[in-house]
C-alpha cells in the first residue's frame, strides 16, 4: 500500500497569489493564504465574509453582485427584463414581475454545458478529425492534378509556340506596312503645308514693300494669293487600327488588326489524318461567287457534309447516303439502317460519316464500310440534327415524339456531358421543325429554330447569349432558317429557305450581309470545306452550289 510520502501531493494555491492556501472565504468561494485574508476583506469591505480554515470550507454558489444595490447578491432572474435581480430589486423596480431561481438556471445551464462538452469531445472532434483527413486527401489529389495540368500547359506551350510566332511576325509585318503607309501620307501632307509657309512669308514681305511704294504699276499689277492660302490642304483622316486578341479553349488564337483578322486554329486537311494549324487572313467579298454547280441526282436533297476540299456526302429522301466529288461523280455509297431516310449527316474530324436514325433512336458511325451505333437516345426522344465538334464531342438535337420539347445534348462517346433545354424557361419553341445545331470557335452553341423562326445562340454553359430573327437583313419574305454552320473566323452562316439566300452574322449576332446573288433556289443543306468555301444543297433541284464568300 502506498504511503502518503510516496504519493504526489496536490498543492492548492491561493486565488490571489501563488502561496499555498490555508483559509477559505465561504461567501466569495475563494482560497486564501494567511497574508491575503486581510487584502481580500479590505478590498471587499462592504460585503460580508465568512473566513474559515480551508478544511472547513463550504462549497456553494457565488451569486452575482447587484448592479443597483450595494452588498446585495442576485439570487433570482427577472424573466420579463432578462436580467439578474436581488431582493431589493424584486421589491422595487421589478415588483410584480416573474422570476426564475438563479440556482435552477445555473444547474440547467451547467447540465447543458456538460452535454455540449460531451458531444464535442465524443462526436464532433472525431468528425472534424475524419473531415481533416478527407480534406488532406483532397489536397493531395488536387496537387497531383495540378501537376498534370502544368505538364499539359507546357505541352500546349510547346505545341503552339512556333505557330504563335508566325502569327505575331505576320502581324508585325502588317503593322509595319500600315505604319509606313500612314507616315508616308502624313509626311506628304506635312510637306504641302510646310512648303507653303516660306511662300506666304515671301508674299507678306513683298506686299509690305508694295504698300511702302508709290509705284502705280506695282499696286495695279498685284495678283492676290489670299484664296490659295485660305484653301489649306484638307486634313487626312487617320484611323489607327486597334489590336484585339482572343483565345478559345486552347484550340484557337485570334488577332484582329483593323479589318484584318488572323486566326490560328486546328482544322482537318484533305488527307484527314492529322490536325494542321493554319494562318487565315480573310474578309468578306463584296459579292460572293458561285464556283461550280454540282448535280447529285438526289431529289429532294436534304443534307450535305463536306469531306476535305472536293468531296461531299449528300442525303435525301431514301436510305442511301452518297459521297460525290466536285464534278458530280459518285465515289462511294452507304446504305443507312433507317427505315425511311437519315435525319441528318455529318463528318468527324477524321473524315468518318455519322448519321442519325430517328426511327431507331440511334446515332451511327460508318467506319471502314461498317456501321456501328454510337448513341441511343432516351425513350420518347428522337435524334435529329448533328454536329461533330473540334474536341471530338457530338452535339445531337432531339425532340419528343409529340414535338412538345426540343433540346441539344452533348455526348462524349456514349456519355452525356451536357443538356441544353432551359435557361429560366424553355430555350427552344415546340413544334415539328428540327433544331439545326453547330458549335462555334468560342464554344458557343448555335441553333436555327424553325419553329420560332430565329437563330438562338447559347454560351458553353447553356445560357442564352442572343437571338437573331432575320429582321436586319430586310428580306421580302419571313425569315425561315434551316441548316447552320460557322467558319474559321467565328462567323455564323444560315440558310434562309423562304428568301433563297444565306445570312452571315458575326459571332456576337451582328448581321453582316446576305449571299443572294448565286442562284440559291430553296437552299437547305449547308457545309464548309477545308478551304473555307460554302457548299449549299438546293432541296428541289438536287444540286449543290460551291460558293466563295471570303478572300
Which stretches are low in confidence, meaning pLDDT under 50 for 5 or more residues running?
1-8, 267-281
Number of strands: 34
- So what's the CATH class of the largest domain? Mainly Beta
CATH superfamily of the largest domain: TolB, C-terminal domain
What integer is the average pLDDT?
Answer: 85
The total of helices stands at 5
What percent of residues are in strands? Answer: 25-35%
Major beta sheet summary: 4 strands, antiparallel
From the coordinates shown, what is the CATH architecture of the largest domain?
6 Propeller
The CATH topology name of the largest domain reads Neuraminidase
Report the principal-axis shape. flat
* Count of the separate structural domains: 3
Through-space gap between termini? 107 Å
The radius of gyration over CA amounts to 44 Å
Describe this structure in words.
The structure is a single chain. The strands form nine sheets. A four-stranded antiparallel beta sheet has the order 7-8-9-10, covered by helices on one side. A four-stranded antiparallel beta sheet has the order 11-34-33-32, with no helix packed on it. The N and C termini lie far apart (107 Å). The chain has helices at residues 34-43, 87-91, 102-212, 216-220, 226-230, and strands at residues 23-25, 30-32, 51-53, 76-78, 83-85, 99-101, 243-248, 252-257, 260-267, 276-281, 284-295, 301-307, 311-316, 320-325, 330-335, 344-347, 353-357, 362-367, 370-376, 381-388, 394-400, 406-412, 415-420, 435-439, 445-449, 454-458, 464-468, 481-486, 492-496, 501-505, 511-515, 523-528, 534-538, 543-550. Mean pLDDT is 85; it is low at 1-8 and 267-281. The longest helix is centred in the first third of the chain and has 111 residues, at 102-212. It folds into three domains: 10-104, Double Stranded RNA Binding Domain, CATH 3.30.160; 105-230, no CATH class; 277-550, TolB, C-terminal domain (Neuraminidase), CATH 2.120.10. The chain is α+β, with helices and mostly antiparallel strands and 551 residues long. 25% of the residues lie in helices and 35% in strands. The protein is flat, with a radius of gyration of 44 Å. It has five helices and 34 strands.
Amino acid at each position: 500500500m502506498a504511503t502518503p510520502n510516496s504519493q504526489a501531493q496536490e498543492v492548492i494555491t491561493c486565488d490571489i497569489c501563488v502561496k499555498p492556501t490555508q483559509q477559505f472565504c465561504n461567501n466569495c468561494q475563494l482560497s486564501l493564504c494567511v497574508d491575503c485574508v486581510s487584502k481580500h476583506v479590505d478590498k471587499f469591505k462592504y460585503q460580508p465574509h465568512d473566513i474559515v480554515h480551508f478544511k472547513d470550507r463550504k462549497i456553494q454558489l457565488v451569486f452575482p453582485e447587484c448592479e443597483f444595490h450595494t452588498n446585495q447578491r442576485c439570487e433570482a432572474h427577472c424573466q420579463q427584463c432578462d436580467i439578474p435581480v436581488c431582493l431589493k430589486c424584486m421589491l422595487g423596480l421589478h415588483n410584480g414581475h416573474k422570476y426564475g431561481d438563479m440556482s435552477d438556471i445555473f444547474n440547467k445551464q451547467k447540465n447543458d454545458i456538460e452535454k455540449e462538452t460531451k458531444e464535442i469531445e465524443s462526436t464532433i472532434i472525431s468528425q472534424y478529425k475524419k473531415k481533416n483527413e478527407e480534406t488532406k486527401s483532397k489536397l493531395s489529389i488536387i496537387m497531383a492534378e495540378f501537376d498534370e495540368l502544368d505538364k499539359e500547359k507546357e505541352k500546349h506551350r510547346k505545341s503552339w509556340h512556333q505557330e504563335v510566332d508566325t502569327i505575331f511576325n505576320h502581324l508585325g509585318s502588317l503593322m509595319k506596312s500600315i505604319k509606313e503607309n500612314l507616315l508616308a501620307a502624313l509626311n506628304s501632307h506635312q510637306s504641302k503645308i510646310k512648303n507653303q509657309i516660306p511662300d506666304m512669308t515671301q508674299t507678306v514681305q513683298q506686299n509690305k514693300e508694295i504698300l511702302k511704294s508709290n509705284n502705280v504699276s506695282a499696286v495695279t499689277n498685284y495678283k492676290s494669293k489670299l484664296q490659295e492660302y485660305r484653301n489649306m490642304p484638307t486634313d487626312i483622316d487617320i484611323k489607327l487600327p486597334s489590336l484585339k486578341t482572343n483565345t478559345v479553349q486552347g484550340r484557337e488564337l485570334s488577332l484582329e488588326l483593323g479589318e484584318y483578322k488572323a486566326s490560328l486554329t486546328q482544322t482537318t486537311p484533305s488527307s484527314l489524318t492529322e490536325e494542321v494549324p493554319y494562318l487565315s487572313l480573310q474578309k468578306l467579298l463584296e459579292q460572293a461567287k458561285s464556283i461550280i454547280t454540282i448535280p447529285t441526282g438526289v431529289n429532294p436533297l436534304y443534307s450535305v457534309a463536306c469531306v476535305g476540299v472536293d468531296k461531299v456526302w449528300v442525303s435525301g429522301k431514301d436510305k442511301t447516303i452518297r459521297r460525290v466529288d466536285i464534278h458530280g461523280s459518285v465515289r462511294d455509297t452507304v446504305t443507312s439502317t433507317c427505315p425511311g431516310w437519315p435525319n441528318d449527316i455529318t463528318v468527324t474530324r477524321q473524315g468518318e460519316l455519322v448519321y442519325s436514325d430517328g426511327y431507331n433512336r440511334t446515332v451511327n458511325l460508318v467506319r471502314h464500310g461498317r456501321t456501328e451505333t454510337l448513341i441511343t437516345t432516351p425513350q420518347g426522344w428522337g435524334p435529329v440534327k448533328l454536329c461533330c465538334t473540334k474536341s471530338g464531342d457530338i452535339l445531337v438535337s432531339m425532340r419528343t415524339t409529340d414535338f412538345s420539347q426540343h433540346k441539344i445534348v452533348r455526348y462524349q462517346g456514349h456519355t452525356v456531358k451536357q443538356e441544353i433545354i432551359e435557361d429560366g424557361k424553355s430555350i427552344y419553341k415546340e413544334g415539328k421543325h428540327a433544331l439545326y445545331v453547330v458549335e462555334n470557335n468560342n464554344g458557343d452553341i448555335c441553333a436555327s429554330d424553325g419553329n420560332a423562326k430565329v437563330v438562338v445562340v447559347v454560351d458553353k454553359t447553356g445560357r442564352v447569349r442572343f437571338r437573331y430573327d432575320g429582321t436586319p437583313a430586310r428580306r421580302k419574305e419571313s425569315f425561315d432558317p434551316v441548316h447552320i454552320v460557322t467558319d474559321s473566323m467565328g462567323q455564323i452562316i444560315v440558310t434562309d429557305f423562304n428568301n433563297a439566300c444565306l445570312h452571315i452574322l458575326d459571332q456576337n449576332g451582328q448581321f453582316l450581309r446576305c449571299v443572294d446573288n448565286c442562284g440559291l433556289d430553296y437552299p437547305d443543306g449547308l457545309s464548309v470545306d477545308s478551304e473555307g468555301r460554302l457548299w449549299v444543297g438546293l432541296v428541289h433541284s438536287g444540286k449543290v452550289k460551291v460558293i466563295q464568300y471570303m478572300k
